[in-house]
C-alpha cells in the first residue's frame, strides 16, 4: 500500500500541480484580462475625452462661424449706415438744389417784372411826352391858323390903320396890323 499511497500522493500532487498551473495560468489570464480591462477603461475615458474635445471643437467652429457672420453683419450695418447717411445728404442736396432752382426762378421772374416795370415807366413817360407834343402841335397849328387868318385879314383890310383884334377857336385873342 505504500506504493499505492505514493501513487495516490503523486497523483494528488500532480493533480495539485496541474491545478496550480491552471490557477497560475488563470491568474495570468486574469491579470491580462484585468490589464486589458484597465486599458479598455483608459481607452474608453480617452474616447469620452476625445468626444468632448470633438464637441468643443465643433462648438468652437460654430462660435467662429457665428463670429464671422456677426462681423459680416456688423460690416453690413456700418455700410448700411453709411448709405443711409449718404442718402440723407443726397436728399439735403436735392432739397437745396430745388430751393436754389426756386430762388433762381424767382430772381428771373423778379428781373422780368423789373424789366416790365422799367418798360411800363418808359411807356408811361411816352404818353406824357406825346401829350406835350400833341399840345405843342395843336398850339403850333393854332398859331399857324391864326397867322394865316391874320395874313388874310391884312390883305382884305387895306384901309384900316388901327389893329384888329380877333379870337381863334381855342379862345386866344390876337391883333392884326396893316403892314
Report on this model:
Helix content is 87%, strand content 4%. It contains 1 helix and 2 strands; from the N terminus they run αββ. It has one helix at 2-156; strands at residues 164-167, 173-176. A two-stranded antiparallel sheet has the order 1-2. The longest helix has 155 residues, at 2-156. The chain is rod-shaped. The model has no long low-confidence stretch (mean pLDDT 80).
Structural class: mainly alpha
Question: Which strands sit side by side, in order, in the main sheet?
Answer: 1-2
Share of helical residues: over 70%
Describe the biggest sheet? 2 strands, antiparallel
Overall pLDDT confidence: 80
N-to-C order of helices and strands = HEE
In DSSP terms (H or I, runs of 4 or more residues), the helix count works out at: 1
Oligomeric form: single chain
Distance between the termini: 222 Å
The gross shape turns out to be rod-shaped
Strand coverage percent:
under 5%
Q: Kindly state the number of beta strands.
A: 2
Rounded to an integer in angstroms, the radius of gyration calculated over CA atoms is 71 Å
Low-confidence stretches are none
Key phrases:
179 residues; 2 strands; 87% helix; rod-shaped; mainly alpha; 1 helix; two-stranded antiparallel ribbon
Summarize this entry quickly.
With 179 residues, the protein is mostly helical. It has one helix spanning 2-156; strands at residues 164-167, 173-176.
Chain-wise SSE layout:
Layout: H1 2-156, E1 164-167, E2 173-176
Antiparallel strand pairs: 1-2
